Amino acid sequence: MGELIGKVAIVTGASKGIGAAIARAFATAGAAVAVNYASSKADADRVVGEIVKAGGKAVAIQADVAKRADVQRLFRETMEKLGRPSILVNNAGVGTAVPALRETPEQFREVIDVNLLGAYWMAQAAAHAMPRGSAIVNVASVIGLMKSFSPQAAYAASKTGLIGLTRDLNQQWSGRRGIRVNAVAPGYFRSEMTATIPPDRLQDYIAHTSTLGRMGEQHELDAAVIFLASPASSYIAGVTLAVDGGMSGH
After folding, report:
1. Which residue, 1, 14, 75, 241, has most beta carbons within 10 Å?
2. Distance CA 205, CA 9 (A)
3. Tens of pLDDT along the chain (250 residues)?
4. Ranges of each domain in the chain
5. CA-CA distance, 209 to 221, in Å (whole number)?
6. Helix or strand or coil: residue 137?
7. Quick one: pLDDT at residue 208?
8. 91: DSSP letter
9. DSSP 8-state class, residue 244
10. Euclidean distance between the first and final Cα of the chain, in Å?
């Protein structure tokens, strides 16, 4: 039920970190994967090489999701190189930890442009390209559901907005177009973002806010994203699945 054999998936922000792991997991489940990157070509090529070496199919495609022209080109190249996509994972994201009184308009807009508007442009393009039975999975955050660990007004606003966007796009498309739209809200996993937080402070925070008392393992997030993208979740639409070790329900 969780297999993706014969499917074409686009994973944005997939050159490293959580996105790269999701791309590899999708390939293992049988999907051909468009590994999107904004600037890290070498990293994206490495992810593609790992997938191909393991017997999968993938291509690296550069595109800045905050630019609509790039988004249109990303879909054109995906269809030319892999075929018609039926899965989109909106994972591309940036984060800041700037006190609100010191955050500049440019800093705030950059986060919103990538995390929220970028996901919107990608979803719009996907809805035009995808057949019925397709799925969009937005990677939100536990910070869209509860208070954050550090001052992250822009990031929290973008991820909370993404959860609202998920609900509304599903309302518009799941019945009319047959495209389910769901989201995951990850807690704390090892990534470039969490690597910037002092480990002792982060572990203490997790211990006091999560019922499981630990960081997540990447395979636990991969399984949730694959589930929402696959026929196994065919009656799940418009939801945000918290993959946070019990943080948001604590």
Report:
1. 14
2. 35
3. 457 999 999 999 999 999 999 999 999 999 999 999 999 999 999 999 999 999 999 999 999 999 999 999 999 999 999 999 999 999 999 988 888 999 999 999 999 999 999 999 999 999 999 999 999 999 999 999 988 778 889 999 999 999 999 999 999 999 999 999 999 999 988 777 666 677 788 888 888 889 999 989 999 999 999 999 999 999 999 999 999 999 998 6
4. 8-242
5. 19
6. strand
7. 85
8. -
9. S
10. 31
CA distances from 107 to 101, 102, 151, 157 (A): 12, 10, 13, 13
* CATH no. for 8-242: 3.40.50.720
Which two structure tokens, joined as six digits, stand for 136?
């969009």
CA count, 13 A, side-chain hemisphere, 35: 33
Token readout for 68 is 């609509």
- Tally the residues of the chain: 250
* Phi/psi-derived region of residue 150, left when phi > 0, alpha when psi is between -120 and 50, beta in every other case: beta
Q: Give the whole-angstrom CA distance, residue 16 versus residue 83.
A: 24
**Cβ–Cβ under 8 Å, residues 235 and 1:** no
The per-residue b/e assignment along 30-48, b for 16 or more CB within 10 angstroms, e otherwise, is bbbbbbbbbebeebbebbb
- Catalytic choice (120, 155, 188, 235): 155
| Residues 153/124, Cβ–Cβ less than 8 Å | no
Q: What distance lies between CA 192 and its chain's CA centroid?
A: 15
Verify whether residue 155 is a known catalytic residue: yes
- Residue written as token pair 């191909």: 52
